[in-house]
Fold:
Amino acid sequence: MRLELHGVSKSFGGLRAVNDVSLTVPEKNIFGLIGPNGAGKTTLFNLITGVYKRDKGSIRFGEDDVASLHPAAIAGIGIARTFQNIRLFAQLTVLENLLVAGELRKKAGLGAALIRSQAHYADEKLRRERAVELLSIFGLVEMADAPSTSLPYGDQRRLEIARAMMLAPKLLLLDEPAAGMNYGEAEGLKAQIRWLRDTFHISVVLVEHNMQVVMGVCEEIHVLDRGETIAHGSPLEVRESPAVLAAYLGQPAGEK
Amino acid sequence: MQRSSAIRNLAVVAAIFAVAVGLDFGLPLAIGDSSIRQLIMMALCNVLVAVSLNIINGMAGQFSIGHAGFIGIGAYGSAIVASNLHEHFGGGDPTFATSFLVVPLSIATSAIIAAFFGLIVGLPSLRLRGDYLAIVTLGFAEIFRLVIATAQIGDAQTIGQACSLVGGEHGIFQPALHCFSTIITSLGGQNGYAGPDNAGVPLYAGPFWIFGLCAIGCIAAWRIKFSGWGRALRALREDEIAAAAVGVDPTRYKVTSFVLAATGGGIAGGLMALMRDGTPIVQPESFGFQTSFDAITMVILGGSGSVSGSVIGALLVTFTVKAIELAQGTAAVQSLKMAWPALDLNALRMMIYGAVLVAMMIWRPEGLLGERELFGATSIKRKRGTKAISSKALR
Structure:
């Protein structure tokens, strides 16, 4: 399914955080969203996931009009995300963090939980198996019962991705997954993103400042600056774009 | 374990039933003093109050300070249904046999009305956060209490006239409002409700009903906590935005848990109104802010989010308050009172109680148990979770 944004705008008071942005994320694509700080990348994520409501424009995911849904329903149609400042459920264990994300696909409701019916146990078991499987994929199974905030920073980031994958999404939005990672870890992340796409046949949208990751893994890149689109294309095209160079490095001397 | 869930449920119900029947007949034999029996049953009602409030205050992390409103609604609902049914049966002493008709009907009425009001209050207010929600719930409870306390007989006429002015003779709301005003003014106002002919509310709920429903309430709360639902509530409490992003709809989960808490409060109120050895009159003052505050104290003292903690908190608060009261009656304290009349011991009681709470919050802010439980359901679950690694879970 394709994610299509058309003429999306969002203002906070007088500040135009996102201004008339249109973009299409093709199916099974690894899509980079870059730009200097304050370009509106995270705001765009928040618009796609319903945390903010857009002022103008349309956001569609496949057949669904995303802009009319609330965040939990957006998770329900297959859009999962991570957060720039990690948002784990602090008091819950690593395993429980994933189990919460299984709530969406549950078949047994509150009534089943109250009478502890077979459906309740079957549901719990299925959810647990899926969670443990994902934890072992992300190398976190050893820490399943540890409080989630006791993990080292890098593991917390991976746990957040694992939790998002628990939703069995079709589109995964990663907000600065490589923040704070060293060269080796970033290489590992690149491989993991590719592996996720190939294994689960999902699209991945990446907001990232680490150019090693962005240029190495993205197939298409969209560049924002001060809420507006300034470039779009393959990594190579974006790298050569004068507008992008200007946005990141400033205008060359003598030009204005 | 899965196969036997029906059998296990049956066994649990049978066990509760047996203990409850035993208590109903055994308690009057074992304890001659009816005030002690009343205290025990009151403690059990308070357990239900604390356990239900814990769902919204502890598990979901919302701060409701209007639980007394739901208790009051439950009390009045049960009192009305039970006394009318009792009159219909021709009065006399409440018997154990007829209680099987009267109590379920009354308590069900209480539960449904309380749940309805839970929904009415919960839907708009759970979009609010923290302090704002607290104020709305407080406002609701106070409005409920004051509406009943200030409605006097004779007002029905006036309210009826006012309605006809607003809606006309054939207005849509007029009959409904008229019906409402008739009911509200028949509740005795400040003096309390004591049945249709002031014959007293029939006290049908013996230890059987009170213990039975209390036990079922605790089991239900326990099962909610250790289910996907409880986990989702805890996640919501930690981070609402992240919970929504993984598909937990905050409004739906919070409103449902609010309704569940209100239902529990309503049932507890109904039991208090019909409690054997209790007072045959339901008064609005019993459901003031003090009642809400006591309920919060029970939950926080025992450990917010812990079911067994709420049970302990409820028992502790009920018996401690009573113990201080009893201590005041002893000769030693009485003579002390005579020696220093300036020492107001009634005020001292609340000061001791307050000091204990302050000390508790300083040295153990998470309550006696924190979020833990007395006996472990988590450890069993964890073992099952990590060992059952199946590689075919993900297609």
Remarks:
- Chain B touches chain A at residues 1-3, 5-6, 8-9, 220, 223-224, 227-229, 231-232, 234-235, 237-239, 241-250, 252, 256, 371, 382, 384-386, 388-391, 393-394 (CB under 8 Å).
- Residues 152-186 of chain B form one domain.
- DSSP finds 16 helices and no strands in chain B.
- The CA atoms of residues 119 and 259 of chain B lie 6 Å apart.
